[in-house]
């Protein structure tokens, strides 16, 4: 069976202090970190056990920063070598060291990287990007679409290799004028998909059928945003619940959710890179003032 799993364990701590993030500079106790490590290792053992049974794609979406923890680095490197794992990726601020990637299979592993201006020097972040490029690691780079971030986004777009997709997330709760949206769309031609929440009520979505989320205890849900459980990963009770089903929520405003809506063409746009947010081809940039078709 082909399955995509979005894993989010109890890790909540982050080494950054972004003003737009509720997990900024949160610290986990030693006990909490131990619980996160144990949960991750149990999940990884389950993935290993599925060889010959399932073909898996895994995206780690921790609340905090995972790659500053050795167990996340080790797990990603190990899973990347499994023949039944098609893709393993993680969302990261890229503050981690990069030498561990030498032990990973770059044809399977990928990174979803976010630049947070004010938390790390621009040059330090882009040096890490150059490391990824030199190692042959697939990665995307993104930034939150706040006005003060626009110069950084433009500089990134000008200096990153052309094949590296630079995405822009609409800032949570922020309404963009057409003129503001045009400025961001000139940086990321796919920004219109992020600009507004997507109406999803009653629309078909791959979550709950071929995509599920898993928490640290093994509870399986259709996605991170619908709380109704489908069962538990480790007793297999969730499999009988897999079936096509419409979205029960009014809107979906997060990329890791709406990318799976069948009403949107994003599986075609991101073909081969849905989890790490890498489009099949880097979309041509639009000149300032040109209006993109919203998603």
Major beta sheet, specifics? 9 strands, mixed
Please report the distance between the alpha carbons of the first and last residues: 30 Å
Rg = 19 Å
Question: Structural class given helices, strands, pairing?
Answer: alpha/beta
Number of domains: 1
CATH class term: Alpha Beta
Tell me the helix content. 25-40%
Q: Could you please say which CATH topology applies here?
A: TIM Barrel
Widest sheet: strand ordering: 6-5-4-3-2-1-9-10-11
Quaternary: single chain
Order of helices and strands: EHEHEEHEHEHHEEEEEEEHH
Give a brief description:
The protein is α/β, with parallel strands linked by helices. It is 26% helix and 21% strand.
What report would you give on this structure?
The protein has a single domain, classed as Alpha-Beta Barrel (TIM Barrel), CATH 3.20.20. The two termini are 30 Å apart. The protein is globular. A hairpin with a 2-residue loop joins β10 (219-223) and β11. The chain has eight helices and 13 strands. With 295 residues, it is an alpha/beta fold. The strands form three sheets. Strands 6-5-4-3-2-1-9-10-11 form a nine-stranded mixed β-sheet. Strands 7-13 form a two-stranded antiparallel sheet. It has a two-stranded antiparallel ribbon with strand order 8-12. The model has no long low-confidence stretch (mean pLDDT 94). The chain has helices at residues 30-49, 70-79, 122-135, 150-159, 178-187, 191-195, 255-258, 266-269; strands at 2-8, 55-60, 85-92, 109-114, 138-144, 166-169, 198-199, 204-205, 211-215, 219-223, 226-232, 245-246, 251-252.
């Amino acid at each position: 069976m082909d399955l995509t799993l979005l894993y989010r364990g109890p890790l909540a701590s982050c080494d950054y202090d972004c003003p737009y993030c509720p997990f900024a500079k949160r610290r986990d106790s030693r006990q909490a970190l131990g619980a996160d490590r144990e949960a991750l290792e149990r999940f990884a053992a389950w993935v290993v056990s599925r060889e010959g049974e399932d073909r898996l794609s895994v995206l780690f979406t921790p609340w905090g920063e995972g790659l500053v923890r050795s167990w996340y680095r080790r797990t990603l490197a190990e899973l990347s070598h499994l023949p039944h794992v098609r893709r393993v990726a993680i969302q990261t601020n890229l503050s981690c060291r990069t030498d561990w990637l030498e032990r990973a299979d770059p044809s399977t592993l990928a990174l979803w990287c976010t630049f947070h201006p004010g938390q790390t020097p621009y040059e330090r972040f882009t040096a890490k990007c150059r490391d990824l490029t030199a190692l042959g690691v697939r990665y995307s780079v993104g930034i939150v679409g706040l006005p003060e971030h626009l110069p950084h986004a433009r500089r990134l777009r000008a200096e990153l290799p052309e094949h590296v997709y630079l995405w822009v997330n609409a800032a949570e709760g922020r309404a963009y004028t057409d003129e503001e949206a045009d400025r961001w769309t000139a940086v990321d031609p796919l920004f219109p998909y992020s600009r507004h929440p997507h109406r999803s009520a009653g629309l078909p979505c791959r979550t709950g059928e071929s995509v599920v989320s898993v928490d640290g205890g093994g509870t399986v849900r259709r996605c991170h945003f619908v709380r109704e459980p489908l069962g538990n990963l480790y007793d297999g009770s969730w499999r009988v619940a897999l079936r096509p089903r419409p979205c029960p929520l009014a809107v979906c405003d997060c990329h890791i959710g709406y990318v799976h809506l069948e009403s949107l063409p994003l599986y075609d746009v991101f073909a081969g890179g849905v989890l790490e947010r890498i489009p099949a081809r880097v979309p041509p940039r639009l000149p300032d003032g040109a209006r993109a078709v919203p998603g």
